[in-house]
Design brief:
Helix content: 40-55%
Number of helices: 17
Shape: globular
Largest sheet: 9 strands, mixed
Low-confidence stretches: 44-68
Strand order of the largest sheet: 3-2-1-4-5-6-7-8-9
Radius of gyration: 22 Å
Mean pLDDT: 84
Length: 374
């Protein structure tokens, strides 16, 4: 029987974010998706939007929304959905996403407080930087949900709003995470730091440890819907028994394979399916398997056929795709940790430091030590 995972979130009719994306992510990871809708995303006409921009009073249902195009459901309707889901299915983990009404936030606290695996991932700003909730909602989240969270997930922009501070450096991220932890969240995951050009940074923090993550795929990680999918993936992994660091790592690998390397099914047919399965396997096994034959065997195809597929989809060989993934992870370790070169080589599955250095230099045209000291 699949493990029930509850998502409390807004509904985005595009399916790229909100409840729709959460359901897809939970199901893809093997969970049983249970949902409670908090608000409905609509699309205002140009005339309606122009009226709002000029400060004119709206005369239709959109006027009740705290942010353009968001229609909140009544608090009692949201709570009844959550009550029924919890009483009937007993979800192993709960995600609270976009909630646009402060009274709903207050009432939700009483429903989710008993869940030991609560992920709070509020949407304060949308992907374009426009606020989706009022200041009253932000305050309600701080008061009622943050203290109950096993994991609090925020973009740096959201954390700046919640804390009233500026986040421009890694040290600023650490300070913000510390302050959010002091509000009661057991773990804090900050995302979207872009203070280093060409990279996006995330930070996982609790009272005894912290870990920075860095990706060079800035556009991919900032894409609409990625934050929601990541939080749903983490919630699912928590429900399956992972501790927080393991859940974050496993969810990150899953989303990373979808965001960085995987292609949408625009080509159709078996080829794109095999390609996406291949890159997902690479994300799962790169630290122990570098041989193309390993992946072809897992896919039940020949190495030659796998090469034909990857060449067709992205114009690269399977060997180069594996190498690209290894190089990206190597750079992350060298940029964000104090691990020795030997330790990095061990983490990436190389049998010796010499082999790792040879690989790195062949890909990057410099040694790992010179890259770190540049």
């Amino acid at each position: 029987m699949r493990i029930p995972i509850l998502s409390i979130n807004g509904s985005d009719s595009s399916g790229q974010s909100g409840i729709g994306a959460d359901i897809q992510t939970i199901a893809a990871l093997g969970g049983y998706a249970v949902s409670a809708v908090t608000c409905i995303c609509t699309h205002a006409t140009e005339m309606e939007q122009g009226a709002r921009d000029k400060g004119q009073e709206a005369t239709d249902i959109h006027s009740i929304s705290p942010a353009p195009c968001l229609l909140p459901l009544a608090p009692d309707i949201v709570v009844k959905q959550v009550e029924k889901s919890i009483s009937l299915l007993h979800p192993k983990a709960i995600k609270v996403g976009l909630v646009t009404d402060s009274e709903t936030v207050r009432l939700l606290r009483n429903e989710v407080i008993a869940c030991r695996r609560l992920v709070v991932a509020p949407g304060i700003f949308d992907a374009d930087g426009k606020p989706m909730v009022s200041d009253n909602v932000v305050e309600a989240i701080k008061r009622h949900l943050v203290p109950e969270a096993l994991l609090l997930m925020l973009r740096c922009r959201d954390a700046e709003k919640m804390l009233g501070i500026s986040i421009k450096t890694d040290d600023d991220m650490l300070e913000a995470a510390r302050l959010l932890h002091e509000m009661g969240a057991e773990w804090v995951l900050l995302r979207g730091g872009q203070h280093t050009k060409g990279r996006v940074t995330a930070l996982l923090f609790n009272f005894s440890t912290f870990h920075f993550f860095t990706s060079y795929n800035v556009d991919g990680w900032q894409r609409h819907g990625v934050a929601a999918a990541l939080s749903a993936a983490i919630t699912t992994r928590l429900g399956m028994g992972d501790d927080v660091p393991t859940a974050v790592r496993n969810a990150h690998d899953f989303i990373h394979s979808q965001v960085v390397y995987a292609k949408p099914d625009e080509m159709g047919g078996r080829a794109i399916d095999i390609y996406n399965r291949f890159v997902s396997l690479v994300a799962e096994h790169y630290h122990s398997a570098h041989d193309v034959a390993f992946y072809a065997d897992r896919l039940c195809i020949t190495t030659r056929y796998l090469s034909q597929i990857t060449d067709r989809v992205v114009g690269k060989s399977p060997k180069q795709i594996i190498a690209d993934y290894l190089l990206s992870e190597a750079k992350t370790y060298l940029d964000t940790t104090r691990l020795s070169i030997q330790e990095v080589a061990d983490r990436l599955g190389f049998s010796s430091q010499a082999l790792f250095c040879k690989f790195f230099k062949s890909q990057e045209k410099t040694s790992p030590s010179d890259y770190r000291n540049r």
